[in-house]
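Before the break, one more example. Copy the sequence into your notebook; we will annotate it together after we see the structure.
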Amino acid sequence: MIPGVENRFQGGGTGGNPVASRLPILLSSLVFPGLGQMFQRRWYSGIFFGVVFFASLVALVIPVVETIIAFYGMANIDATFDAAPDAAKRLAGQIGIRFAWAIAIYVINIVDVGVADMRRRSKQHILIAT
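Here is what the structure looks like once it is written out:
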């Protein structure tokens, strides 16, 4: 076996390369949540974070699209509606809550990958010390 390669594909990265050792965190933060867990071979966590984050993005896009459609729909109508401000507030609230939910999932995902990486490193240091 090539030294360092088996650790790299198990989420370890090569010993002296800080970028390779932080690759799971970079994958989860820059590419898509869940990829860092999958790189660490934590399949269930990766699938969970990927699916939940994707679902939160879809849930976020729905009111955004509704708002855009409503905006352009109202532009074609000459009359003004009294209910429009209430509908706008409702949609803005939905967008804000769903955006906060997506950000929370994103942050929890990055923390999860970082904690798992720290646990792996501490186990490696214990094994090296003994």
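The longest helix spans residues 84-129. The chain has one domain: 5-129. Try to locate both features in your own notes.
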